[in-house]
């Protein structure tokens, strides 16, 4: 404004000087010409300002007269606002990346319980597609009556355990709803499927151990009570010897179960090691002798053993796995059946220990569950021959600790083949 007044004063002074020299008409003409020039200059400056307002990110036009000071203040404010906005955007991007990186699912809702945002984990958990489902009620997406009842509460002091099915996937989610911001809601969902399975496994394990121990304990207690309550002269030496034999048998079952449980616990808790060179042939020979004793000469045994083949491993663990596979073959192969034991190096460089039988075979639906603790295809037959139901679980752990694979091939009525395939890195090269 000061510049404009100075310019106007200069034009007025010039017009007065001209009027004193060339007449009043000339003075007025010069003043009008000056005012027109000022108007034209102001119009040009306003035009430049107008063009600048279309893209305020650029610096303002230079030399726009009285507007210079105003535009400088406006531009500085715009630059500061842009910087603050940029910082806010970066901060928001960081928050969104952090939300995406969360191991838990997160869903934000407005006051009407409509979806406004979710991270990728929540999409995986619930099948929510933000591009399609944004703005829709969460109750149309999570169609579970227990969730609807939970979400419509006024307070949510405890999370909700929710079981959802998405395609072929069953999930257990621990869901917590909370308020935030201005009448907005946040749902946090944690996948506890594996934890729930582990808890179920733990409960089943305790129940199975209790059941497996209860049977021999009941039998043992019954015989002890009988022997204790009857007069000594009422039992013959043969009967007394028979009772003692049966009690020893039940005590042996409990001892075998405890031994297998301790073995399994050791395998699960101790760290894996590379081990030392082990010749498996003597271990297999020992297991064969034990299997023949268990068989009581009721089976035909065929052995194809490479006596020099060695692997790096832990001898005690390998002995347990070798013996378990042979013992199972004896238990599930009828009288006069054939059991073939092989230990050889494959063309691909692996070392393979296999036990093939002509037994009752296994149904295809049972094969994936064979390595579960206490799982038996034929419970009565296994118990009758002294099985604990832990042999294949132990064998699987031994295989994993040696980098091997436990492979099972079987058909009902056509026998089974169990094999431990050790990787070439475990096989010790023979010296010429």
Automatic annotation (TrEMBL):
Residue ranges of every copy of the Histidine kinase domain listed in the record: 208-426
Gene encoding the protein: phoR
Keywords noted in UniProt: ATP-binding, Cell membrane, Kinase, Membrane, Nucleotide-binding, Phosphoprotein, Transferase, Transmembrane, Transmembrane helix, Transport, Two-component regulatory system
Organism: Mesopusillimonas faecipullorum
EC number: 2.7.13.3
Protein name in UniProt: histidine kinase
Listed SUPFAM superfamilies: ATPase domain of HSP90 chaperone/DNA topoisomerase II/histidine kinase, Homodimeric domain of signal transducing histidine kinase, PYP-like sensor domain (PAS domain)
NCBIfam families membership: phoR_proteo
Catalytic activity of the protein: ATP + protein L-histidine = ADP + protein N-phospho-L-histidine
Root EC class: transferase
């Amino acid at each position: 404004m000061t510049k404009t007044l100075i310019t106007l004063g200069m034009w007025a002074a010039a017009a007065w000087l001209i009027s004193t020299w060339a007449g009043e008409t000339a003075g007025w003409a010069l003043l009008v010409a000056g005012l027109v020039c000022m108007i034209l200059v102001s119009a040009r400056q306003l035009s430049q300002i107008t063009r600048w307002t279309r893209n305020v990110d650029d610096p303002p036009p230079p030399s726009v007269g009285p507007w210079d000071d105003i535009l400088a203040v406006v531009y500085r404010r715009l630059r500061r606002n842009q910087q603050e906005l940029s910082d806010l955007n970066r901060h928001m991007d960081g928050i969104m990346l952090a939300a995406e990186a969360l191991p838990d699912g997160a869903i934000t809702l407005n006051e009407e319980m409509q979806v406004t945002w979710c991270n990728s984990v929540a999409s995986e958990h619930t099948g929510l597609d933000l591009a399609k489902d944004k703005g829709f009620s969460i109750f149309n997406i999570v169609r579970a009556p227990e969730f609807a009842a939970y979400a419509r509460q006024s307070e949510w002091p405890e999370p909700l355990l929710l079981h959802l099915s998405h395609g072929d996937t069953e999930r257990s989610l621990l869901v917590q709803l909370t308020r935030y911001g201005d009448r907005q809601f946040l749902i946090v969902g944690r996948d506890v499927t594996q934890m729930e399975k582990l808890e179920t496994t733990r409960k089943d394990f305790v129940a199975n151990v209790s059941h497996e121990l209860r049977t021999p304990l009941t039998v043992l207690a019954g015989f002890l009570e009988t022997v204790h309550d009857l007069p000594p002269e009422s039992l013959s030496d043969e009967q007394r010897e028979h009772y003692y034999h049966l009690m020893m048998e039940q005590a042996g079952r409990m001892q075998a179960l405890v031994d297998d449980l301790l073995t399994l616990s050791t395998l699960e808790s101790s760290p894996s090691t590379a081990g030392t060179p082990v010749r498996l042939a003597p271990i297999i020979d020992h297991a064969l002798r034990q299997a023949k004793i268990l068989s009581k000469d009721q089976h035909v045994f065929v052995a194809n053993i490479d006596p020099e083949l060695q692997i790096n491993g832990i001898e005690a663990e390998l002995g347990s796995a070798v013996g378990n596979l042979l013992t199972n073959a004896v238990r599930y192969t009828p009288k006069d059946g054939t059991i073939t034991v092989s230990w050889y190096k494959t063309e691909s460089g692996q070392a393979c220990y296999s036990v093939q039988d002509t037994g009752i075979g296994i149904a295809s639906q049972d094969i994936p569950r064979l390595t579960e603790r206490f799982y038996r295809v034929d419970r009565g037959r296994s118990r009758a021959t002294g099985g604990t139901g832990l042999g294949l679980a132990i064998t699987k752990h031994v295989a994993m600790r040696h980098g091997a694979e436990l492979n099972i091939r079987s058909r009902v009525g056509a026998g089974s083949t169990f094999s431990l395939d050790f990787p070439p890195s475990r096989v010790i090269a023979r010296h010429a």
